[in-house]
Amino acid sequence: MALKDSLQKSMVGLFPEKLGLRFLEASKEMLSAEIEVTRDLCTLPGRLHGGAIMALADTLGAYGAFLNLPEGHSTTTIESKTNFFSAGVEGGKVVATATAVHLGRSTMVWQTRVERDDGKLVAIVIQTQMVLSPG
User: Are residues 82 and 124 in contact, defined by beta-carbon separation less than 8 angstroms?
Assistant: First the structure.
């Protein structure tokens, strides 16, 4: 089973599945996924809610960190910064690509670029994941 398929299966019944997240690619250094901009994810009519954008990016960064954890360790987001540039538009999709910036022993940093399906930049998110030891 491809890594992206395994990750997709792991979120059954969880929030990312409710968001409609679909993995497109996955490796230990880069993940990409898309969501459809549906009315129930909008804040103003026709405009994707910023929280949906942040949730998409946070999910990718967390999964990326998870893929790089030592056995028995876990992770949690300790910081996330989002810059918004344009809106996701209802009826379209947004595609997020997360890349590893730093893969350390105690923290990992991921940058996620979110774009509309027409290529226009929606947001850039930088998040720090803490590596948690077992126990």
Answer: yes
